[in-house]
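Its record is quoted verbatim for completeness.
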Amino acid sequence: MHFLTKTIQKVFFISLLLPSEIKCETQSICLGASSAPQLMKKFALLVFFSCAEVKSSYGSKGYHASLGNQKKDNDDNDYDYCPDAVGHVKWPADKTAIPNKAFIYCSNLASIIIPKEVTYIGVNSFAYSGLQSISFEPDSELELIGHQAFSGCYNLASIIIPRKVTFIEPRSFQNSGLQTMTFEPGSELELIGDDAFFFCKNLASIVIPRNVTSIGWASFRYSGLQNITFEPDSKLEFIDDYVFRSCYNLTSIVIPRKVTSIGYASFHSSGLRNIMFEPGSELELIGDDVFRSCKNLTSIVIPRKVTSIGVFFILSVRSAKYHV
């Protein structure tokens, strides 16, 4: 890496000596996968500074700089599916998985249509891309959304999750621009991974499908969540640590009947005013610091099956009263 950095510095100084009228006829270049993507982007910009336009993406074969409006044809290249002139991609139906890092850092990606045959969206597949719109063909077979798949997609405002998705992996949408997330009717989603919606400041509301049994660690922490509801007959059993930590706009919640455990600091420093439990609550454990610094929460009724309440669970709650 040190050698590569020195090389780029030399290229920069050489580039200053090149004539301004130099013409760029090269259409594309692919640099090794072992190289850091941000460093490669700088390299491409320096070497081809005279090109009218430099577009880029990073995938399993390395960093690809597309120079100008065209892309060199190569049937064996992962980048056959780079965005067209308006930033659109139609993924081929015979490719049933979107590879890891397929469009990572692809700033000129605007929209994509996912064929119904695709079952998996890979790790970091769209992370930090310019993605604005993603749609799925009817009867989608998608089952899994990979780790950090849409992390840092600041322009992605909405998404409809196909019915057969069972797992949203950790950090899948963290720090994205999501405003709305909806699930197709009959959703089979079971697990929401750790930090799945961490720092999604524009996400105001969400309806959790009935088959979800666990909401992972810090999954909505520091989000803009104002309202969360659960479908009738929710199967949710476990709310992990820090799940709603510092959700300042979240003012009320109804905990589903089958929840048995609320983890450490899960509502710490949130905006909660009201918390209620469905009739017949099976809650047994309330962890440490669960409602700590919830300054707007004034009362809470503890379900009768609770056997353990953690330390400081309501510390800093103003004039709080709790009843068993």
Q: What stands out?
A: Residues 2-17 form the longest helix (16 residues). Residues 1-79 have pLDDT under 50 and may be disordered. The first strand starts at residue 28 and ends at 31.
